[in-house]
Amino acid sequence: MSKYLTGDKNGIAEFISRFDVGSTTPKVFLFDCDGTYITMKFSPRTGDIPVQNFIIITNKTENTRRIGVLWSGDHLFEGTVETLEMLRSKGIASPIQATLAVLAKPKIYRAVGKQIVFVTNNSTKSRADYKKKLESMGIPASVDEVFGSSYSAAIYISRILSLPPSQKTVFVLGESGIETELDSESIPHIGGTDPAYNRLIDSKDYTSIASGETLDPSVGVVLAGLDFHLNYLKLAYAFAYLQRGAKFLATNTDTTLPSAGSLFPGAGAISAPLIAMMGGERPMAFGKPSQAMMDAIEGKFRFDRKKACMVGDRLDTDIRFGIEGGLGGTLCVLTGVTISEKEWGGEDREVVPTAWVKRLGDLRG
Q1: Distance between CA 288 and CA 363 in Å, rounded?
Q2: Is residue 63 within a helix (H) or strand (E), and if so which, with residue range?
Q3: Residues in CB range of 196: below 8 A, 6 or more apart
Q4: Which residues of 261-270 are buried (b: 16+ CB within 10 A; e: fewer)?
Q5: Does pTM surpass 0.90?
Q6: Nearest to residue 308, comparing CAs of 69, 31, 29, 2?
Q7: What tens digit of pLDDT does each residue of 173-224 get?
Q8: Under a CB-based contact definition with an 8 Å cutoff, are residues 216 and 191 in contact?
Q9: Rounded to an integer, what is the distance from CA 193 to the centroid of its chain?
């Protein structure tokens, strides 16, 4: 059964402290760090707001709601900064350490409390982009505290995936966020934001792609993420590389992207045509709830999973990510996509958070 923590000081203290006992490795709290707003349709009969009814309408049953864990768009949820700093200070061993932590550099301060990691499926922005976003919202952060799906894919390609020496190049379907993270791991890449691919296909392209004349023989991976400039030419090149044996990877397979009060095609819509062309072969994905992402995070921070917690607003991505990753706990925040504890009710439900709060700031007690 999921425990309701809002207003329960003892319950909050017990929940937070459960991640401290019996481990000398970092105590990690993973936070989903995407947020927007969306217009929803109320059910005239019940007043409920079904997730599948997230639409733009123009009558009295509409309601624009902010969704996210830390923020929504440019709106920071009340208590976010204070809650993060409280967690960063929890677990300090003694009053002396506590005093030193407050006076010392932020890096030392964070080391003696919970390790905060900001996790995102958004492949269009780099870790540096997210650091700027966090700081603009008043949240102190370092690049190392951000873990995105693009970075996760780059880590996998550079440190785990075994490729022939002559096939180390990645063909990118995506934006600059992917390119930046590939660069951070010194991975050569083509496609992506290169203007040469941002055009209509012509008859010569069919011939040169079919013959292999314009294909780069060093391409060993096709990496698909959210691409705002997807076109037939890019798909043709990606398909040609896959047919020739390139590995098929995706930053994430989210089908939709919430933005400007509505839903738009997500990164999953970019890889979907290739999945169909490849006869149903699905790419290895690195966004939540993929455990490839969890493995990459664990590899970087070297933490005990039983002393880690995933905090998020979506059952199907955030909470499932934590449960399938074997974390010590999960916390659902109802300022996001999940709006009621009824959504995980029932004994047969597989995805049930360890605990839940109405808003993140409630963890302050």
Answers
A1: 24
A2: strand 62-68
A3: none
A4: bebebbbbbb
A5: no
A6: 29
A7: 999 999 999 999 999 999 999 999 999 999 999 999 999 999 999 999 999 9
A8: no
A9: 22
